[in-house]
Amino acid sequence: MRNNKLLTASFIALLVLIIIELFVYANYNKLTEDEVSISFVVTGDNLDAWENMKSGAQTAALDRNCQVTFLNSPIAAGADGEIEMIERQLADGADYVVIASGFYDEVKEYVEDEKLQSKVYFAKNGPYGLKNGVIADDYSLGKDYAAFIMDNSNDKNLLVLYTAENINNDKIIEGLSDGFENTDVTIEVQKLTADDSTITFFITKAIAEKRYDGAIILDSAVLDDAVNVEGLIDSSFNIYGVDDRQAAVYYLDSDLIKALACKDDYTIGFMAINQVLSKGKKELPKVHLYYIVEREDIYSEQYEKVLFPFAK
Amino acid sequence: MKKSILKTQILRVKRASKRRSIQLIISFSFTIVAIISMTFMALAFYKNFINATRQNAIDNNKQIVAQMGLNVNSYLRNMMGISNSMYYSVIKNMDLTSDTMTKEMDILYEANKDDLISIACVSQDGALISAAPIATRKAGVDFTDQDWFTSSEEKFENFHFSKPHVQNMFESSNYRYYWVVSLSRSVDLNFMGYTRRGTLLVDMNYSAIEQMFSRVNETGTGYVYLIDSDGEIIYHPAQKAIYAGLVNENNLVAATYDDGDYIEEFEGEERAVVVKTVGYTGWKIVSVVPINQLGERFNQLRAFMLIIITVTIFLILFGNIFISKIVTDPIRKLEDSLNTIDAGELNEERIFIGGSHEIRHLGRTIKSLVVQMRTMMDERVAEQKEKRKSELNALQAQINPHFLYNTLDSIVWMIEAEKYPEAISMITSLASLFRISLSKGNNIITIKDEVTHAKNYLAIQKVRYKNKFDATIDIDPAIENCITIKLIIQPLIENAIYHAVGDLYDEGLIEIKGYEKDGDIYIEVKDNGMGIPEDKLKDLLVEKTHSSKKGSGIGLWNINQRINLYFKEDYGLKLESELDEGTTAIIHLPKITYEEYIGGEENAK
User: Fold this and answer.
1) A126/A124 Cα distance (integer angstroms)
2) Which of B42, B117, B115 is nearest to B79 (CA)?
């Protein structure tokens, strides 16, 4: 009787095992992890400016069963354009959306209202230390930039110019203020309207008045206008840029600006994808997400590979 | 220690197997052996298959790397060809005092502009002689500081390939910076017949190399990267991530590898690496395939193999149980047969004969043994029975010497008293008594003869006891021709005389009755003596080993035993007694006529 029970149990166990194995075999493709689809939304009118970030994101996705789609939301579409893009991507089957938002506050509010924190991650723009985001430490950038300026120049009166009011610029300004605090360097923060003639006029005037030794420019729009101001090259007015574009590197290489602080878009893109794939659980590596470079260092081994986006 | 544990385990298994049925042992042991063999074979096959497939993948990678080597080599040779063309066809034939090479350089550049970024010729002191397509040197750029220049100055007979770098010497109007690999060589420049040394630079477009490798990396498993002889990365699909410290690569170790394939462990991951050196430059193309990625494609195969193994185990188990049942069923039936023998039933018809040849043979042998045993036992029982009969008969046949002496003394006395008729009668009774006692050696006689024997005995005893008792005999004539064992009534009469009526003051009475009841025969010998106490009465039919004491009861037990031996135990002697009333001995016999007995039908009874 006991033997019969043992045999029956063996048969049942084997039958169950066969059924499970057949199920696994028949559904093998379904049981294996589906490809993760990530939409990477950036603000801007063309994607070329985001080549570095795209390259970093795609490198991170290599051999990870992950598909990254890069999309841009035109600046003119504003926050609504970005939100619509997020909604459309999620509706179209994207598992996650990473957004380098030009309108962080509005998008953040939308994400929180819709409880999409586990679906939407932020990159580059936003407050440092965000749980669902990879953001450079803008405050430290500002502070380090202040230290760099004091170490490498005799500039004492500096303008801080920007057009876009956002948390990143706020933090840089805060860092700069703290960095120059209790030193002989004074800064004057000036928010300009994003109008070429206004900017050009303002900088031309500043150069002509010789009241300032230079300007720390936080926006690409201001920087582009500033380097084209007549008389800049012959003046002692130093421009310190905060810009990630190739054009800014060119300005530095051409000696139009004295130094450049730029964020490492490649690493930000790389880490953002890693963060998404680890569902925000894995701690990100402690790496620098910004650099402060002067002309002499552009082609150095340290910065050449960072500043020029071509190399993956 | 381990040996003793193993020994203990083996003993435990042995002990456990003793308690299990042969079918279970066969089924499970065969199944386990089959599973172990099958698993071993499957693993060996699987391992072999995996190794072959992995080797195949590595071979494919080798081919890819070889092809990449050819491509890179071809590309580099093309660049060296451009350099040679420029040098041998243009520079060497030109007097730089009066001629300019710009036009030829532009033509050469235009013809190869997909692979080239720039061509330049620089004098030994760093002056730019000619360049294409852009001739404006950036402010502050000193050619003599450039690596490609110093390399060609150090070893002017060779081609020199630089590490990838951003081309930073010439003005560009479109903010574009190009990654290049600089190919430089020392050249002889002719100035009015005077030869001065210079450097010819060909900046190869890095994107051409990048495209070559990125196309390879888009297909297949793993990736391919390019390093120089020092292990510096020239191309890597995650190059910038490596520079940023986000990803690590084993490039410095790979630089030490000779051409071939290797299995290396890097950051806890086993990887198949194929290395191929690109001629002249010393660059190395390294193909990396993580071993676990090679195994991924076998996951489904593994699942399939598991199913096959499980189904096979299932079939083996079923098959083994079925086969073992066929083998062991006859053994089990034979075991059941032996159990019946063990229980005392020696019936050869119950012995199972069936199954395989060996078991049938075993069954037949056991059957034969059972037959022999039963025959022997029957013979032994019969022998014992006969012996017992003989002993009991002999015991019963003994004539009490006192009885004979007293009888003869009585006869002498009668003759002396001239009571001749009484003497003759007594002698006649005595003679008849002996004749029936002998009965020609037969132990079975008719009731009539037995009664006659009793009458003769009574006649003698009456004379001896001077008619102190009376005796009546009432035998149903219908049973007179039925058989009885001889000398079973006389001992009862003797007991009645000696223990009951012989010593009575009043006249004793012995009544002898014979009748048929329920198809059996009953013969009663009843006396009117003092009776026998109940406790003594019980002992009278129990066997006594020996006793010479008068009235020990051996006679009664003997009668009962003899009846039991000759007939069945249903028959025998029964005693009933009541104190002061008397005792009745009842003989119970089967009703068999003498003719039936002679005809041998007593066995049926």
Assistant:
1) 7
2) B115
Within 10 Å of residue A242's Cβ, how many Cβ atoms?
29
DSSP labels for A32-93?
SPPPEEEEEEEESS-GGGGHHHHHHHHHHHTTTTEEEEEEEE-GGGHHHHHHHHHHHHHHTT
pTM, two decimals, is: 0.64
Task: Give pLDDT, residue B602.
Answer: 46
B238/A59 touch (CB, cutoff 8 Å), yes or no: yes
State CA A133 to chain mean position distance: 9
Structure tokens at A159: 């303008």
Closest by Cα among A54, A93, A91 to A266: A54
- Residue where the block lists tokens 């300019």: B100
Rounded to whole angstroms, how far apart are CA atoms A105 and A124?
Answer: 13
**Interchain contact, B27 vs A56, CB within 8 Å:** no
DSSP letter (8 states) at residue B398: P
Task: Identify each DSSP E strand in B499-598 by its residue range.
Answer: 508-517, 520-527, 572-578, 582-590
How many H helices and E strands in chain A?
12, 11
Q: Which of B541, B559, B527 is nearest to B450 (CA)?
A: B559
Nearest to A311 by CA among B214, B204, B174: B214
Q: Give the span between the Cα atoms of B526 and B586, in whole angstroms.
A: 8
A310/B300 touch (CB, cutoff 8 Å), yes or no: no
Q: Hey, how many other C-beta atoms are within 10 angstroms of the C-beta on B324? A: 21
Distance, C-alpha A244 to centroid of its chain: 9
A165 inside 8 A of chain B by CB: no
Q: Residue A189: in which H helix or E strand, if any?
A: strand A186-191
CA of B566 vs chain A CAs: smallest distance (Å): 50
Residue-wise burial string across B186-211, b where 16 or more C-beta atoms lie within 10 A, e elsewhere: bbebbeeeeeeebbbbbbbbbbbbbe
| Distances B388 to A92, B381, B440, B444 between C-alpha atoms, Å | 112, 10, 20, 15
Number of alpha helices (DSSP H) and beta strands (DSSP E) in chain B: 17, 18
Q: What is the ipTM for the molecules in this complex?
A: 0.81
Residue count of chain A, please give it: 312
Scanning A253-272 for CB atoms below 8 A from B yields 253, 255, 264, 266-267, 270-271
For residue B290, the SS3 value is: strand
B168 contacts on A by Cβ (under 8 Å): 253, 298-299
Which domains does chain B carry? 68-292 (3.30.450.20), 398-603 (3.30.565.10)
Task: Kindly determine whether residue B317 and residue A14, on different chains, have CB atoms separated by under 8 Å.
Answer: yes
Please name the residue that has the structure tokens 């819709």.
A114
Full pLDDT tens readout for chain A, 312 residues:
556 676 778 778 878 887 887 777 777 666 666 788 999 998 887 777 788 888 889 888 887 788 899 988 888 888 899 999 999 999 998 999 999 988 888 999 999 999 988 899 999 888 888 888 899 999 999 999 999 999 999 999 999 999 988 888 999 999 999 999 999 999 999 998 878 888 888 888 888 888 899 999 998 888 998 988 877 777 888 999 999 888 898 899 888 899 999 998 889 999 999 999 887 677 777 788 899 999 889 888 888 878 886 644
HSE-CB for A311 with a 13 A CA cutoff: 29
Mean pLDDT over B195-200 rounds to 90
Condensed to tens digits (0 to 9), the pLDDT of residues B488-519 reads 898 888 888 888 887 776 678 999 999 999 99
Rounded Cα distance between A259 and A256, Å, is 9
Residues 6+ apart with CB under 8 A from B483: B444, B445, B446, B447, B589, B592, B593, B594, B597, B602
Distance CA B427, CA A181 (A): 169
Q: Is A60 on the interface with B (CB under 8 A)?
A: yes
How many Cα atoms within 13 Å fall on the side-chain side of residue B217?
24
